[in-house]
Structures are given as C-alpha cells and as structure tokens.
Amino acid sequence: MTTAGSAPRTPHGWPLWEVFVRSRRGLSHQHVGSLHAPDGEMALRNARDVYTRRGEGVSLWVVPSAAIVASSPDEQDPFFDPALDKVYRHPTFYEVPEGVEHL
Amino acid sequence: MQVDVDTPPPVEEQQLRFDRMIADEVRIEPRDWMPEGYRRTLIRQIAQHAHSEIIGMQPEGNWITRAPSLRRKAILMAKVQDEAGHGLYLYSAAETLGVDREELLDLLHQGKQKYSSIFNYPTLTWADMGAIGWLVDGAAIMNQVPLCRCSYGPYGRAMVRICKEESFHQRQGFEILHTLSHGTPAQKAMAQDAVDRFWWPSLMMFGPPDSASTHSAQSTAWGIKRFGNDELRQRFVDMTVPQADVLGLRIPDPDLRWDEATGHYAFGAIDWDELDRIIRGDGPCNAQRMERRRTAHEEGAWVRDSADAYARKHAAAATTTSDAA
Questions:
Q1: For chain B, which residues lie within 8 Å of any Cβ of chain A, measuring from their own Cβ?
Q2: What predicted TM-score, i.e. pTM, was given to this entire model?
Q3: Min CA distance, B302 vs chain A (Å)?
Q4: What is the ipTM score, two decimals?
Q5: Which Gene3D superfamilies does this one have (chain A) (predicted)?
Q6: How far apart are CA A11 and CA B280, in angstroms?
C-alpha cells in the first residue's frame, strides 16, 4: 500500500517525490521538480528549502513519483487523436454573419 | 479505455522522430525515445555540473566563519545554500534520465566523475569571495544562460532556476571587490591579488579551444550546446574588462587590448597545460576537496539513517492503525 506518508524506495535510497508549488493565491499548483526524502513530512521540509528560498510559493504539494500514472510519449499520437478531428469544438469553426456582435 | 500495448516502433523510426524534434527545436522530455549517446552525454554533463555545484560550496564555506561583518556572513551563507540547491536541481534533472542520485555521488566519491576544475584553487583571502562571485560566477552565467534553451527539457528548466539565482551571486562578489578596492591601500591590494589569481582560471572555465574540444560538435548537433567555447570566452572578456575599470582593478594580462578591427578585446595566450594538470588531479586543492566531500558524506550518514528509521517507524504505525480501522 502507498500512502502520503510512505512511498516505494528506489534501489539505492530514499523514495523520489515530485514537488508542486502554488506561486500565489488564485493560481494552481505547478510542477517544479523532484527530490528524495524518507517520508512526506521530510519531503515537504526539503521542498521548502530547495524550491522556495525566495518566496516562490504560498503552498506546496509533494507526491510520491511512483504514484503518478502517465501517458507515454510513444502513444502520444493515437492517444490524443480523438481531439484532433473534432474541429467543431473550437469557436473558430463557426461562420458568423457580418454585423453580429458579442457572439 | 483501451490502451495499446503493441511493440514499440523500430529504432530507425524512433531515431527519425528524435532527429525531427531536434531540428524543429522541440524539447525532448524524459519518457521520449532518445539515442543512447544523447542520454550518456547528458548524464555525464548534468552530473558533472551537479558535482561542481556541491564541491563549489567548499571554497566559499571556508570563509563563512571569518566573514568581515554579519551582513557579509548572512549573504555568504545564503549563497552557499544556493549552491547546494543548484546541485539538487541538477541531480533531480539527471535522475529523469534513469540514473540515481546515490549512484552519481558514488561515482564522484570514487573519482570516476569530475567537477569543474575552478574549485581546485584555494581561497586564500576574503577578497577571493569577491573574485569568485564576480569572475567565477560571471563565467558560469555566461556558460549557463544558453543551457536554458538546451534540447533536454528538465536540464533547461533547472538552468532557468539556477540562472535567476546566479545573478545575486555575481553582484555580491562585485560589491565585495568594489568595497575593498575603495578601501585602504592594503584592502585594494588584497582585491587586486584575488583578481590576479582568479582571472586566468576563470577564462579556462569555458573549456579548451573549439579546435581541441572533443565533444563540442556532437553536443551542438544535439542542441545541448548552443555556442562554441571560444565565442563564450570572448563574450566574457568583452563584458568583464569595462567592469574591471569601474572596480579600479587591473586585469593581469599584458596582452589585453581593445581591437578596433574586430570590435572585441584581444587577450593573451591561456596556459592550457595548467588546466590539463588540474583535470588530471594535480591542482592545488584536488585532494583536499575530495577528502572533505567524502568525509562530509560519511559524517552525514547518521542523519540519513535516523530519518530513515523515523520514517519506517511511522509508516509501520500508520499501517497498523489503518489495518485496525
């Protein structure tokens, strides 16, 4: 089982954590990098020291890297294909008669 | 959702796709297919860069307890802490290529991976803190700014963070020298002596001349390297000489002169034998730096072990609690 307090260890040491920073209120958290730490609490403390030495954030998330499920770049084209042939999802698809405003 | 688990496309096809991405200036990201040579080159370069950051803490750490004022001491501590942070950003970037930070540290400690030869010079006086900030960090910035556009995404992103922080490093060094050179004659002499010792090694930081640089061509083709060693070195000289005038300090090069024809400063021959000696391990502080690094790592073992034991104990407690619930 993987919880926020424990994560799978790499063969050589502490587990890897991905670090996300909210730079200010009103913005979402953004990925800034990763670090090693024995547990979530230490990961947070290390993230503060490594990634926010100059007030870069008001909130931090750390997530065990192993808990992230990612699409593979090799599958990129077929995986994202369904979006490509649906041009009618974009407003620019539609013709608007001359003179119509606020549409 | 159905996920295809087909066999990956043949290597030739992957190589073509990679080449096209490089040609189009599209960034390569960790899970992309990449040629083994590209991966190896990046691991070697990023690791060497990371090692340089953490070894670079030593020459300056040397002066923290003897900084001339509380202000200077606080600044120097912040700077040395930044160097540790830069090392961590870079180890983190290297790990996206499938190596482990512990492995890289082992290779450093075994002398199988290198760090920048500039850190094998001793820091003999307080003025050296100024010369390192102004010249060594100045040269590092010149080298690092183009790396922000490196074809490998995580390396470029780490460099963006590092470059933002380096500019404080260079300015505080300039300020130290400016203060000394406008102080007593003895203080000014100390500043001049530091510049005399760090000028040539700083020029060597750009690496051997392009004609003798073994990896340059391939690194350029891969979009890792953007400018030649000689071009960056020239830019550094052009940028630095006018700053020396403001400092009132002399660049220790009798051949240095403005060349109207080229629009650049011409400078004297660099002693490449000196660089070779230091790279081979024969610099003034090679042995001391490595010994200190290994000792620091060994003496930190109890901290790592304690944090580990604490994490295990609490993870076990959490599992027991959730089982009971």
A1: 3-4, 8-9, 29, 31-33, 78, 81-82, 85, 88-89, 92-93, 95-96, 100-103, 157-158, 161, 165, 304, 307-308, 310-312, 314-315, 318-319, 322
A2: 0.90
A3: 14
A4: 0.84
A5: Phenylacetic acid degradation B (3.10.20.520)
A6: 32
| pLDDT values of chain A reduced to their tens digit, one per residue, 103 residues | 334 444 555 545 789 999 999 999 999 999 999 999 999 999 999 999 999 999 899 999 999 999 999 887 766 677 887 777 888 888 889 999 999 988 8
Look at B102 and A5 and tell me if their CB atoms are within 8 Å: no
A73 vs B32, B157, B158: nearest CB? B32
Under 8 Å between Cβ of B230 and B210: yes
Indicate the domain borders of chain A.
16-89
User: What's the token pair of residue B29?
Assistant: 């990201």
Residue of B101, B104, B106, B302 for testing the chain A interface, max A β-carbons within 10 Å: B101
Class of domain A16-89: alpha beta
